[in-house]
Amino acid sequence: MRYFGLAFALVIGAAGGVMADPVGITKDMMSVTVETAAGPVEISRVQDNAAVIEGDFAQIARPCPNFCIQPMIPAEGVTPIGELELLGFLDDPDVVVIDGRVRPDFEGGSIPGAVNVPYTEAADRLGELGCEPDFDGFICDGPEVKSVALYCNGPWCGQSPTAARRMIEAGFPADKIYYYRAGMQGWRMLGLTVTGD
Known about the structure:
about 200 residues
């Protein structure tokens, strides 16, 4: 009980309000500003220390299939990444951050600066990444071909892993694909900025 009183005293300020400790991305980075089609967007974390994840992304026991846990590496040669790497890619002109979800999911909230390429279209849109059409798919070599960072709903979502495999089958180099497996569930769990929120 004594511990509870001490903890309670630390949370309640002199004016009786709840004190909020700053919530940074890292200890040295409070936010990142990225350019989007709609202009600059500041990505930061929610500053409410009592915030919790809600809605569909709070669901943790969806049946498999369709909601099976995805592998960390969806195809040989693909590199898994975390949030800090993804934030860096949002500001890198040589990398396109791709939301591989269907359009309604993308429109319901996405990572600022991401481009929507639904997984069903990924293999057909490689020309947008600098690849040249060929009879059997695409030719994707040369310095003009951009790298991609793919994500979807979370560790249980198969949309971006499917996109990665289809892109590779169409001729896109696996070593130019990065996979953010935590997806929107992980992004929201960390309280990071989402479009439309």
